[in-house]
């Protein structure tokens, strides 16, 4: 068995315009000061990392690594969540998604999508140069407006949607394969890959691609009323990344998993800081240890109530207390009986 690494923290929600939140060095020192030993770095803000430089220059990547080591942390993974969303974008979301891309491709869906694909390919090379094993992203969504089957979907719509999703992602997956890095899709509502069944559909459409994996975040499963522990049982061979994020679903007589267009504070399902929600993290960490998950436990802060600084301060000890240092031997080794073929036959009544 293997012991999870951590605690790490995803920096995306903490980036700001004032120090220490406006630079990689500042955020690295800030994270280390809260007790984290790893940082997951978003790639859409050049103040943290210049993705093009990282893909083209080993010297630059070595400098980035040095900045982190000097602060007392290491990079766990890079993230292209925003760029991944643009790889497959339904036209209904075009105006909302333009902000995820540079001004030169805004209002130009085809150019924006081509830019996003190139960003993912750059991230593959950058991850290799940084010595990383996995990468975080979103799948994007061509089918999400049709997630509820009314009006009735025409026959073949879902199949065609996943075929197109696979067509767009396969060259990217091949680029990650060439770089020796796993591409991990965060299973997330709003994405075409939002539960186990949709991941299975996609995996079949890319012919079980060796680099197509999952970022497991139990909070998104709680908000869909799914069994987040059984999910690990089903998909542990494809789970290569882990966001430690809490959530709660409070059954309500007025609204449910769709949220009634309510703000996050009033929804039946909402994200909470670690320990304030309903997720049994003792069981989650145990299940991951059982299946030899050797990746990072990375805190992602999204909470409607608690201040982010308080959540960050509490997150590192929470993860550290939940990581199981796995045992190197069986608990009953003291009573072990040496292998003896004759004895085994006698015990089985075979003479």
Q: How would you describe this protein?
A:
40% of the residues lie in helices and 14% in strands. It is of the alpha/beta class and 351 residues long. The strands form 2 sheets. The protein has an 8-stranded parallel beta barrel with strand order 1-2-3-4-5-6-7-10, surrounded by 6 helices. A two-stranded antiparallel ribbon has the order 8-9. The radius of gyration is 22 Å and the shape is globular.
Radius of gyration: 22 Å
CATH architecture: Alpha-Beta Barrel
Low-confidence stretches: none
Order of helices and strands: EHEHHEHHHEHEHEHHEEEHEHH
User: Approximately how much helix is present in the residues?
Assistant: 25-40%
By secondary-structure content and strand pairing, the structural class works out as alpha/beta
Biggest sheet descriptor: 8 strands, parallel, barrel
What is the 3D shape?
globular
Q: What is the CATH H-level superfamily?
A: Divalent-metal-dependent TIM barrel enzymes
Average predicted local confidence, pLDDT: 96
Could you give the distance between the termini?
37 Å
Number of strands: 10
Strand order of the largest sheet: 1-2-3-4-5-6-7-10
Domains, number = 1
The DSSP helix count reads 13
CATH topology: TIM Barrel
What is the name of the CATH class? Answer: Alpha Beta
Query: What is the percentage of strand-forming residues?
Result: 5-15%
